[in-house]
Write a structure and sequence with these properties.
By secondary structure, the chain is an alpha/beta fold. The protein has 29 helices and 23 strands. It binds one DNA strand of 9 nucleotides through helix 5, strand 16 and strand 17. Its EC number is 3.6.4.13.
DNA sequence: TATCCCATA
């Protein structure tokens, strides 16, 4: 395929970007209004150019220009390019800051950063006094941190008089987004002006398939179908590479195997428009793949060979592969959703939204016109796919976010200005959990412990366990575990070949056995320590099928957590406790104080029943050392839940009922709906007394956790939890109902 | 009875 190389070079010159002719008007628009929305498709140049225009126009006299990105790589690469264009050394006038990598200095006037970084800065300095302009980029992606920043910026800077009290000069806020939803954003920021920049994209023609209809939502029928369509494309379409979208690792490897088998039977000398397509290069792509293997994806295929990349959603926004002309879209994605019925965050496969389908199709039109083959029917599109992807803030656990808001002085977390309100139930659930972790008191006020917790970049449950271990003086057990659980999966499972997969599993089993216990958390600790004390850690990883990149980042996270803990122990009067139990139980006892919300008890055979008040039936994931383990392990805690062929719990550890006995009633003592008034901070003394007596009565009623459990088990015999579709439709219906109201 | 979306502090 001939690439328009010269054109591409010319395009990257700032003056040829669509944004250039709007330069003066754009700068004026920022001058005039405290808030401004800028919309433009990818390729309009807004991310790299606008900060430069503002810098040139003298906006950096009083403070910095800060630009947020939802992803680390984006923040770094864009900063590199802008530094180049401004002809300065990266880290001086132009810099970036992401976790573990601060490339800024006193001189830095234009600072690219992740949205999470800016949120941390807000915690330390709510009026953002260092900045003259804050630009939130890629707002249409609706990342959790960006959404919170939107609300905070509106809250703090909407009232000019109030803002003036906080700062010596006004702050300019620019919100950048793809064209969708610009009216909504403008309305959110007091009907502020919208500036539109035309983009430049090539047309992509889309076709619907006939295979996957509304009834196939639940079956993973689509793997076979994408393989068939990809082969059709290979045989009948002009030269150009193929990108296939699937949902997960095992599916992708299965599809690659099928493609390989079937492509062997193709007549490779099939003549397509004067180009002899001799073969098909099949490449899997997913996030947990080793980096060197990922790099292969970007190399152009050998002459005459067509590349076919089978990827997860990683290829939708995070990675751009050149030369893609054809998309095969399965119509599904694996997504982390907060599930009220299961009562926790669950990873599940759901249909993508229409806007996401368009995003996928767009990956074929980056360098020339392309084609997108959707394997699902028009009916599936109309009936099963929502218009937009539900923003993260409406579908994940809000526990950490609510704690952050509370610590920022936002007490009324229900009436906080969300661009899209999460369901009140989700907010109340988060409050309930914070209360259970002792992070807030019964009036919704942040406790001393809560103030300690917000300092840690971890899930609150994990933070709770870590703080427990610190107060017992055994933080060396929990710090590595917390670090390992907050990085990507460290176990490499396979590289397409089944024999090697068995090899990997054998090594991982050996590591689990080395701990002398059956406990996935202990295995993580063991991997961490074994590798750290090894002479050649990267070789050790290779030998044991461990992800070196992931483990390295776990080392950094552990160091960071250790530093935070040390700082807090020096400043605050840190709580201390003594432990008189068996030393070998220490790790598990600490885990219990953060994971008592994730307790399950063996029900029948291999089925476990969760104890969180929802009583879901779950199975131990095959990757766990508890998988297939026998009946004496009756009580377990687990780190997360995953719905694929079954509802699986992952990273599991057996516990004794006595350890959680006193904590479990706490799960049932607070009625979520009664927290509503606490959330609003409108509780009168009378209400408080009434509420507390009611709770006391309830506690008496549910004398022990055993009783609760029996009740739950009874209720759950008819309940199928793996019915992802029913839940999906239920959520959809609820959303529509709310909209109608 | 058989397997792990993507990000982020």
């Amino acid at each position: 395929m001939s690439k328009p190389t010269r054109l591409a070079v010319k395009d990257s010159e700032p003056k040829h970007l669509p944004i250039y002719q709007h330069k003066n008007k754009l700068v004026q628009a920022v001058r005039k209004s405290p808030f401004l929305i800028v919309t433009g498709e990818t390729g309009s140049g807004k991310t790299t150019q606008l900060p430069q225009y503002l810098h040139e126009a003298g906006f950096c006299k009083n403070g910095k220009i800060g630009i947020t990105q939802p992803r680390r790589v984006a923040a770094i690469t864009v900063a590199q390019r802008v530094a180049q264009e401004m002809k300065c050394t990266l880290g001086r006038e132009v810099g970036y800051q992401v976790r573990f990598d601060d490339c800024t200095s006193q001189e830095t006037a234009v600072k690219y950063m992740t949205d999470g970084c800016l949120l941390r800065e807000v915690l330390a300095d709510p009026s953002l006094s260092q900045y003259s302009v804050v630009i939130l980029d890629e707002v249409h992606e609706r990342s959790l941190n960006t959404d919170i920043l939107l609300g905070l910026l509106k809250n703090v800077f909407s009232d000019p008089a109030e803002a003036a009290k906080r700062r010596s000069f006004p702050l300019k806020v620019v919100v950048m987004s793809a064209t969708l939803e610009s009216d909504k954003l403008s309305a959110f920021f007091n009907n502020c002006p919208v500036f539109e920049i035309p983009g430049r994209v090539f047309p992509v023609t889309c076709t619907f398939g006939s295979a996957v209809g509304p009834k196939d939502v639940e079956r993973n029928f689509y793997v076979k179908e994408v393989v068939k369509v990809a082969l059709d494309v290979h045989i009948s379409e002009k030269a150009g590479d193929i990108l296939v979208f699937l949902t997960g690792q095992s599916e992708i490897e299965h599809a690659c195997d099928l493609l390989f088998e079937k492509a062997e039977n193709i007549d490779y000398r099939y003549d397509v428009q004067d180009r002899t397509v001799e073969g098909l290069l099949i490449l899997p792509l997913y996030g947990s793949m080793p980096t060197d293997q990922q790099r292969q994806i970007f190399q152009p295929p050998p002459p005459g060979i067509r590349k076919c990349v089978v990827a997860t959603n990683i290829a939708a926004t995070s990675l751009t592969i050149n030369g893609i002309k054809y998309i095969v879209d399965s119509g599904f994605v694996k997504q982390l959703n907060h599930n009220s019925r299961v009562g926790m965050d669950v990873l599940e496969v759901v249909p993508i939204s229409k806007s996401e389908a368009q995003q996928r199709a767009g990956r074929a039109g980056r360098t020339s016109a392309g084609k997108c083959f959707r394997i699902y029917t028009k009916e599936f599109w109309e009936k099963c796919m929502p218009e937009y992807t539900i923003p993260e803030i409406q579908r994940t656990s809000l526990t950490a976010v609510i704690l952050t808001l509370k610590c920022l002085g936002v007490h009324d977390v229900i009436r906080f200005p969300y661009l899209d309100c999460p369901e009140e139930r989700f907010i109340l659930e988060a409050l309930k959990q914070l209360y259970q972790f002792d992070a807030i008191d019964r009036r919704g006020k942040v406790t001393k412990l809560g103030e300690l917790m917000v300092e840690f970049p971890l899930h609150p449950g994990l933070t709770r366990a870590l703080l427990k271990s610190a107060s017992l003086g055994c933080q060396d057990l929990l710090l590595p575990v917390a670090a390992m659980l907050s990085v990507e999966n460290i176990f490499i499972r396979s590289v397409t070949w089944r024999t090697l997969e068995k090899e990997a599993a054998k090594k991982h089993r050996a590591l689990a056995e080395k701990t002398g216990s059956i406990n996935d958390f202990a295995t993580l600790l063991c991997v961490f320590n074994s590798c750290k004390s090894s002479d050649r850690p990267s070789a050790w990883c290779k030998e044991n099928w461990i992800h070196w990149r992931a483990l390295k980042s776990a080392f950094s996270v552990e160091t960071q957590l250790r530093e935070i803990l040390l700082r807090l122990q020096q400043v605050q009067d840190f709580p201390t406790e003594s432990f008189d139990g068996n030393k070998s139980e220490l790790l598990r006892r600490c885990l219990c104080s953060g994971y008592f919300t994730n307790v399950a008890r063996r029900s029948v055979g291999k089925v476990f029943c969760t104890m969180d008040g929802h009583g879901s039936m779950v199975h131990v994931h095959p990757s766990s050392s508890l998988f297939e383990q026998e009946a004496e392990l009756n009580w377990v805690i687990f780190h997360d839940v995953l719905v694929t062929s079954k509802t699986y719990i992952r990273t599991v550890c057996p516990i004794r009922y006595e350890w959680v006995k006193d904590l479990l009633p706490k799960l049932h003592e607070v009625d979520v709906y009664e927290l509503s008034s606490v959330a609003r901070q409108e509780v009168t003394e009378d209400e408080m007394v009434k509420w507390e007596s009611k709770e006391a009565a309830k506690r008496q009623q549910e004398a022990s956790a055993e009783d609760v459990m029996k009740k739950l088990e009874k209720r759950n015999t008819e309940d199928s939890v793996s019915d992802a579709r029913a839940r999906y439709l239920q959520r959809k219906q609820q959303r529509e109902q709310r909209k109608a109201l």
